[in-house]
From TrEMBL:
Pfam families: SBP_bac_8. It comes from the Bacteria. Its main location: periplasm. Residues 408-429 are annotated as: Disordered. It comes from Comamonas resistens. Gene3D superfamilies: Periplasmic binding protein-like II. Keywords: Signal. Belongs to the bacterial solute-binding protein 1 family. Residues 1-25 form the signal peptide. This is ABC transporter substrate-binding protein. PANTHER family: ABC TRANSPORTER SUBSTRATE-BINDING PROTEIN (PTHR43649:SF30), ARABINOSE-BINDING PROTEIN-RELATED (PTHR43649).
Length: 429
């Protein structure tokens, strides 16, 4: 009897062990994913949808988006978690955060996860312009995801009323300034009710300056992120052009908010705005008038900086989480997903293969405005990025704002920004 009880006990114990093993095998691995969005809304629903779809195809993982605020707030949260030993598996952060993340030893090179020929082909499939802000020191640190170029949005109705061709955006600075004058409207009391052009100067002032320095054939920093050239005559000339739009009354005075610029366009307070292609889906859904999208106006040349966010894999995350993050980044950047994301968001699909998918081909034919940012890529340059990126960028942003609000001349502002940036970057030379 005792022997029988013992055998029953063994069988029951074995059953419990195999059941707990089964439960363990079926419990998916938690994979935290920080995503930069400040408020809920359509984009969070889209990202939630992608996460759910990925988890369905990969039941061994439970990838969970954590909405962490603005890009700036997200990098602070990600680095705080990294320092506390609780790093997310992955985060979408600005491509320009690459040097900062490397300096903090927070991210793992993507090359460490690229094992198969298919992986290698995938990594080679991105647009070279986007890889300029994703690679350094012979390694790949970021995977392009929500990437962009800067474009001009213009109100075709306002163009018609001003006697301008509604099917052609201004091609150069001369045309841009002339159009801005024609498009500026005042009421009976002389108050401007519609500015000809609006370029935002909060948040990403440095990026907007690049939309003027790039066509003026000037680069703001070297590839290694160790040296800036803010006091170059061509940079000063570009900022001077921006300031002249304000002085001539065709652009709002003072500091212009990044977040409200698309709204000002949709409310007809500005006839032309310069901002990211990432605003395209929003403007398409909400503008109550016919609008055009144009490449950035040229001067010496054409061109725009690239922009937007990359996936980064965090070094202190568990190996299995890192692998899951790599699988997710690879999955979401496959041509069919990249195509869908481009249509959902307005960002540029990150590979030529995405534009060959039937769905994006059809979308491009029906809505050619969606192809402008992509067509600008061959003449695009890397977004301004250096070591100590947050500090160096703040110096430049402050200098631009000082020139726009008239407290410093463009030459003065850039000279001081150069000296301060040199001081910050001294140890990286």
């Amino acid at each position: 009897m005792r022997r029988q009880t013992f055998i029953h006990g063994l069988i029951a114990g074995a059953a419990t062990l195999s059941l707990s093993g089964l439960i363990q095998a079926q419990t998916p691995l938690e994979v935290p994913f920080y995503y930069p969005v400040a408020v809920g809304g359509p984009i969070t629903k889209v990202i939630d949808g992608y996460a759910a779809e990925f988890n369905k195809v990969h039941p061994q993982y439970k990838l969970t988006p954590v909405y962490a605020g603005t890009y700036q707030e997200t990098i602070v949260k990600a680095l705080t978690a990294h320092k506390a030993g609780k790093a997310p598996a992955t985060s979408v952060l600005l491509s320009t955060d690459m040097f900062t993340l490397m300096d903090e030893d927070a991210i793992a090179p993507i090359d460490d996860f690229v094992k198969t020929d298919a992986d290698k082909a995938w990594l080679k499939g991105f647009y070279p312009a986007f890889m300029a802000n994703s690679q350094a020191g012979g390694k790949t640190w970021g995977i392009p995801f929500q990437r962009s170029t800067v474009v001009m949005y213009y109100n075709k109705q306002a163009f018609k009323e001003a006697g301008l061709d509604p099917n052609k955006a201004p091609q150069n600075w001369k045309e841009l300034k002339e159009a801005a004058h024609k498009l500026t409207k005042k009421d009976a009391s002389g108050k401007v009710v519609q500015y000809g052009i609006q370029i935002p100067s909060t948040g990403f002032a440095y990026w907007m300056l690049q939309t003027l320095t790039t066509p003026n054939d000037a680069l703001l920093a070297n590839e290694a992120g160790t040296k800036v050239t803010l006091n170059h005559p061509k940079v000063i000339e570009a900022l001077d052009f921006w300031v002249s739009l304000v002085k001539e009354g065709v652009h709002p005075a003072g500091v212009v908010e990044w977040g409200t610029t698309p709204k000002d366009f949709m409310e007809k307070k500005a006839a032309i705005i310069v901002t990211t292609t990432g605003n395209l889906t929003n403007i398409k859904a909400n503008a109550k008038f016919d609008f055009g999208v144009g490449q950035i106006a040229g001067n010496i040349r054409k061109g725009s900086p690239t922009g937007g966010g990359n996936f980064y894999i965090f070094k202190k995350a568990a190996k299995e989480q890192q692998q899951a993050a790599f699988e997710f980044a690879k999955w979401i950047t496959q041509p069919e997903h990249a195509a869908q994301w481009s249509m959902d968001s307005g960002y540029v699909a990150v590979s030529p293969a995405a534009y060959e998918t039937p769905v994006l081909k059809k979308y491009g034919q029906e809505f050619p405005q969606a192809l402008v940012a992509r067509d600008q890529l061959p003449v695009s340059v890397a977004e301004y990025s250096t070591h100590e990126n947050q500090r160096v960028t703040k110096v430049l942003n402050d200098a631009i704002q000082a020139a726009l609000n008239g407290s410093k001349t463009p030459a003065q502002a850039m000279e001081e920004a150069q000296k301060e940036s040199d001081r910050i970057l001294r140890r990286y030379k």
